Amino acid sequence: MNSKHQRVRLSDGHFIPILGFGTYAPKEVPKSKATEATKIAIDAGFRHIDSAHLYQNEEEVGLAIRSKIADGTVRREDIFYTSKLWCTFHRPELVRPCLEGSLKKLQLDYVDLYLIHFPMALKAGESDFPTDENGKVIFDTTDLCATWEAMEKCKDAGLTKSIGVSNFNRRQLEMILNKPGLKHKPVCNQVECHPYFNQGKLLDFCKSKDIVLVAFSALGSHRENRWVDQNSPVLLDDPVLASMAKKYKRTPALIALRYQIQRGVVVLAKSFTEKRIKENIQVFEFQLTPEDMKVLDGLSRNVRYIIGAPFAGHPNFPFSDEY
Q1: Nearest alpha-carbon partner for 261 in 46, 49, 18
Q2: Residue 1 lies in a domain
Q3: Residue 141 lies in domain
Q4: How far is residue 104's CA from residue 2's CA, in Å, rounded to a whole number?
Q5: C-alpha angle 163/169/170, rounded to 5°?
Q6: CA atoms of 163 and 114, how far apart (whole Å)
Q7: pLDDT, tens digit (0-9, with 9 covering 90-100), for 131-147
Q8: Binding-site residues for substrate, please?
Q9: Do the strands 266-269 and 19-22 form a parallel or antiparallel pair, or are they unpaired?
Q10: Is the dihedral of CA 82, 87, 93, 94 positive or negative?
Q11: What is the mean pLDDT of residues 6-28?
């Protein structure tokens, strides 16, 4: 209960720490902040670090991990590191090069978890967001099952311990699960999940298939224009979270994080502020009552912060289905 190294078993036998440190930051945040914050997080007790090709900070995050290994704070096997395959690398022949590119930046021999970041393929090339002359994102058509087979090969080659997906809906998960000749099933699905959007149906489905749900934007969102609906309510200002925070003598953020842990959801806490990073690890020091868990379940109001507007017309756009 109070172990800050609480872990969840994945279907392939590996273990993922239930609390993770998210490293995404909007463009205007200097990349060096990722090094600083990741070091603080590891010193505070975080052992699960989440990044991606798209975040363009893997050199900085890798530097932090390696410096904490070098100073004896952790060993490589103590750290659970997640990276993600970006949409412009969905073609099977590009999957391994994308992962190898991340490993080169990180200067690590393997990642612990590699995810397909979104189910939508974009045109391959230099740009992460290829656009036409009208500024519209250029889609690509790649069979998700073929992308998955290339992911399986990365696992077999030892470049990643586990493989999973992110932002997939039930239909897309089933497409992979029902694939003829499936060798390794996705161990997890990383999706937006918080008290305003608790993903109850998707969580139940994932549990029934032994797929771990990993929650991003668990504290609401950074509210970056490109991704986020600017009219959406601010989660951490919610009066219910505020009154519970008072009751447990914790922060609203800790209430939101604890809620996920008690549902069996692996949760990513994202902050580049030292005080908050250290605060977030206190999530293991208290427990919410079943009654309070029910109250928090009742906050869900279908508020999705990350709406993925640039991708809305894509045939594999995942957010049109109910879950």
Answers
A1: 18
A2: no
A3: 7-316
A4: 36
A5: 95
A6: 5
A7: 999 999 999 999 999 99
A8: 117
A9: parallel
A10: negative
A11: 95
Under the banding of pLDDT at 50, 70 and 90, the label for residue 232 is confident
214 closest CA partner among 281, 279, 117, 289:
117
Please indicate whether residue 55 is annotated as part of the active site.
Answer: yes
Specify if 188 maps to a domain.
Answer: yes
Spatial separation of the C-alpha atoms in residues 165 and 113, rounded to whole Å: 10
Binding residues: 117
Whether 2 is covered by a domain: the verdict is no
Phi-psi region of 199 (alpha: psi -120 to 50; beta: other; left: phi over 0): left
Contact 142, 91 (CB under 8 A): yes
Residue 267 host element (H or E): strand 266-269
Rounded CA-CA distance 257/219 in Å is 7
Cβ neighbours of residue 194 closer than 8 Å, sequence gap 6 or more: 215, 217, 218, 219, 220, 235, 256, 260
Alpha-carbon distance of 16 to 212, in angstroms, equals 9
Write the single-letter amino acid at 295: V
CA of 13: how far to CAs of 108, 110, 125, 148, 161, in Å? 22, 17, 36, 19, 10
Q: Is residue 41 a part of any domain in this protein?
A: yes
Show contacts of 175-184: CB within 8 Å, 24+ apart: 175/144, 175/145, 176/144, 176/145, 176/148, 177/209, 179/145, 179/148, 183/149, 183/152, 183/156, 184/12, 184/151, 184/152, 184/155
Domain holding 31: CATH number?
3.20.20.100
* Residue 26, SS3 per DSSP: coil
Number of domains in the chain: 1
What letter would DSSP give residue 161?
A: E
Kindly tell me if the per-residue pLDDT of 222 is higher than 80.
no
Q: Tell me which of 24, 55, 259, 305 is the catalytic residue.
A: 55
